[in-house]
Amino acid sequence: MPESAWKLLFYTLSWSYGIYLLFFTDYPFFYDPPSVFYDWKKGMDVPTDIAIAYLLQCSFYGHSIYATAYMDTWRKDSVVMLLHHVVTLTLIAFSYAFRYHNVGILVLFLHDVNDVQLEFTKLNVYFKHRGGVYHRLNDIISNIGCLTFSVSWFWFRLYWFPLKVLYATCYSSLQSVPNIPFYFFFNALLLVLTLMNIYWFLYIVLFVAKVLMGQMQEVNDVREYDV
């Protein structure tokens, strides 16, 4: 429970800040993904508001590598989670160094929303049986959260992410900046991230299948060893 509460707090703050950057400033990256590479040049200045987001995310994922290995509950996907944190931290650090920060903000926005829903739903799963008493409200919220999490995972990570981010980095980048540095390096990492998103979506499909076949009567985290 403390693990989920901490992650819910961080991801809520980080995703809210992402909403601010993409929808309440002049950055057009969400509605015009190719614009992340407009006027790109080596050594360009990083806007302060984007630099703050990068500082927060880089510090969080640096901590998460240690936390996943030594602090958090070990799960069936913990090895993949460690790989995810390493890939994410590498993308954050190198995209900042090589001034691909615009696309980085878009990547973080499209991923953080699912973590908000996941940790909020898990908290309600933990809270529905407390003090030896069953709490129906938390059970209902966890069921609704599971449904919205499943849909949004597909929509944000498997639909919008390729449509907006991969399209911009694989195709539009070469149109705006021919011979753009480290093209294959960054796109390879983004493709690895996509494969991990597909891997975790299989857990979601497995969960839904168990519910539909009557093998699971209530919402639980199918990655947990004791479930």
Automatic annotation (TrEMBL):
This is Ceramide synthase 1. It catalyses: sphinganine + octadecanoyl-CoA = N-(octadecanoyl)-sphinganine + CoA + H(+). Pathway: Lipid metabolism; sphingolipid metabolism; Sphingolipid metabolism. One of its GO terms (biological process) is ceramide biosynthetic process. InterPro entries: Lag1/Lac1-like (IPR016439), TLC-dom (IPR006634). It is found in: Membrane. The lineage of its organism: Eukaryota, Metazoa, Chordata, Craniata, Vertebrata. Keywords: Membrane, Transmembrane, Transmembrane helix. The chain crosses the membrane at residues 9-30, 50-67, 79-97, 140-160, 180-208. GO terms for cellular component: membrane. It is a multi-pass membrane protein. Residues 1-213 form the TLC domain. One of its GO terms (molecular function) is sphingosine N-acyltransferase activity. The keyword Cytoplasm does not apply. SMART domains: TLC (SM00724).
